[in-house]
Design a protein that fits this description.
Layout: E1 14-15, E2 21-22, H1 31-34
Antiparallel strand pairs: 1-2
Length: 68
């Protein structure tokens, strides 16, 4: 079973309002990013130059992430 963590939940740009949107993707986070098939640490089409930035209090989650 392939279980992945949604990095969006620990990004400072995420809108925690159950709409799966953020500052970079106000009309909806692409499924590739939302389902952790691609990581948003580099520019992604349509993000307006806004990339993943971890919420400082959540940095410890990145230690356990398998980002390959």
């Amino acid at each position: 079973m392939d279980i992945r963590f949604c990095f969006c939940r620990i990004c400072k740009h995420y809108r925690n309002d159950k709409t799966f949107t953020c500052t970079a993707f106000p009309d909806g986070i692409p499924k590739k990013i939302l389902y952790a098939r691609e990581f948003h640490f580099k520019n992604f089409h349509g993000d307006g130059g806004i990339k993943f930035e971890v919420i400082p209090e959540k940095e410890n989650f990145l230690e356990f992430a398998d980002m390959e």
